[in-house]
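step=predict obj=DNA polymerase IV n=396
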Amino acid sequence: MADQASILHADLDSFYASVEQRDDPGLRGRPVLVGGGVVLAASYEAKAFGVRTPMGIAQAMALCPGAIVVPPRMHAYSAASRAVFDVFHDTTPLVEGISIDEAFLEVGGLQRIMGTPTAIATRLRAEVRERTGLPITVGVARTKFLAKVASAVGKPDGLLVVAPGEELAFLHPLPIERLWGVGPVTSGKLREHQIHTVGHVARLGEAALVAMLGGGAGRHLHALAHNHDPRRVKVGHRRGSIGAQSALGRRDHPFTEVDATLAALVDRVTRRMRSAGRAGRTVTLRLRFGDFTRVTRSRSLLKATTQTRTVLETARALLITAWPLIQDRGITLVGVAVGNLDTDGGIQLELPFDNPHDDGLDTALDAVRDRFGSSSVTRAASLGRHLNPSVPILPD
C-alpha cells in the first residue's frame, strides 16, 4: 500500500438527472425523475422523499407526487461524459474509467507540479463544474476500495479525504452494505448473525467468514474490512465485453415485446463491436425480475463474430430457454453482452465461410446510421418502442 492517499474516485452526482437540470433551468431545485417505466436516475430533491433506482415510476410518484418525469437522452449523457473525462485526462494520464459517470485517478506522482492529492481533487471538482456545469464528488484514499467508499459517503457534491492512519476509524463504523460485493443476500446472511457494521466483519476471523459465506466471498470481505486492496489504477486496458441493457417497467411483457427489445439491443451491441473492430465468442443474456433478483444465461460460439444475425440467433435461443422462468417471476430488465473479445479485431473464418451477404448488410446499415443517426434505420418490431438503458455504460 502506498504511504500517501493518492487515489481519487470521482463520481458524478445523480448523473442523468443532473444533466437534465443543467440543460433545463426550470428543473433546477425541483425533484426530477429520469425514466419511463422505471426510475433510471433521481435528483437529490427526489431522493429526499425516498425515491431510489430502479424503482417503478408509479411507486416513485406516490412517494414524491410533485416529481417531474423526463425521458432519458442518452446522446446528451454520452456527450457530458466525454467532456468530464476530458477534465480527468487533463488532470492526470493515469485514469481508469469504470462507468459513464465515474473513474479512478492516480495523482501520486504529480505533487511537485500540481500540489497535494487534496489540492488536485479540489481543483478537479472546480474544473468539472466550470467546464461541464455538473456537480461531482471525489473520494481520496490509499486504496481504490476506500476511495470509492469515501466518494459515496461524501455525496452529494463533496470532497472526502481519508488520511493514512485513519482508514479503519473511518471504515469500521459504516454499515456492511458499504463493502463491495455485499448485496441483499449477503447482507441478510450477515445481519442474521448480528453483523451490522464493517467493524463487526473485521473482528470476525477469516475462517468464520468463509464458513458463513463461502471461500471467495469470505476471503474478499475479510480483506476489504481491513482495507487490504492491492489493485492499482489501470490505464489503457481494453474491456472484456461489450453490452447494453434496457429497463422494461413493472408490468406483464409478452414474448414479442421482450424479443423486439432484445433485437434492438443486439443491433446496438454488434454495431459497437464493429466500430471498435472487436469480434466476440460468448453471448450472455441478462435478466432482472420483479423481485429485483437477476440471472444470466450464456452460450459460446465456435468462432468469434461481429455479425448481428449470429449474435441475435444465439441471444434469442437463450431467451426462449429462460422464458418459463420469466413467465413465473415477471421481467423488468433485459440485457445482452458479447464477451471473449479478440484483441486485434481479427476474425478467423471457418469452412463453409460465413454468408457474405450478412456482413454486407451489417456494413451498409452501419454506414446509414453513422450518417443519418442511430434511429434512421430500425426493425419493424421496434417501431414505437424506446430503449431505456438502466445502467450507465462507458462510451467506447
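step=describe
The chain has three domains: 1-163, 172-225, 241-382.
step=end
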